[in-house]
Write a structure and sequence with these properties.
The longest helix has 24 residues, at 46-69. This protein has helices at residues 2-9, 23-30, 46-69, 75-92, 99-105, 107-123. It is mainly α. It is 63% helix and 0% strand.
Length: 131
């Protein structure tokens, strides 16, 4: 869901940059109900929201690399902290062996990709040492 990425970038939802919208906020932005269980209607499920969060992590890994290319050395640090927090949240979940589980397993590779970017920046002295 592009809404999650847009909110994280600070372009929607009235939230500050780097914020994660809740499933209810995404539903409100799209004018779509969330987690409807009592009737058969179009809605956003928790599983779809979690898939959107995994997609957000994948996009943020790409953004970290592209930010360095454009000379923005602080954004990868912000992305790294955020993605590590999300990864910790996914590790708490007890996911069944389905598509969500397989996609959540890919998060660790995106975390490593972002950590490699931050490590490279630190080796080149492009970020402060105390970070």
């Amino acid at each position: 869901m592009a809404v999650v990425f847009c909110v994280w970038l600070g372009g929607a939802g009235g939230k500050p940059q780097g914020s994660l919208p809740t499933i209810e906020e995404v539903g409100s932005t799209l004018n779509v109900p969330t987690n409807v269980k009592d009737r058969d209607t179009f809605h956003i499920t928790t599983e779809e929201y979690l898939h959107a969060l995994i997609s957000l992590i994948e996009e943020l890994a790409r953004l970290a690399v592209n930010s360095v290319t454009l000379g923005d050395y602080q954004r990868p640090l912000q992305i790294s902290k955020f993605v590590k927090d999300l990864h910790a949240g996914f590790q708490i979940l007890n996911l069944k062996n389905d598509s969500l589980r397989r996609r959540s397993d890919s998060i660790k590779y995106n975390v490593k990709k972002i950590e490699d970017v931050v490590y490279d920046l630190s080796l080149r002295n492009l970020i402060p040492r105390n970070v």
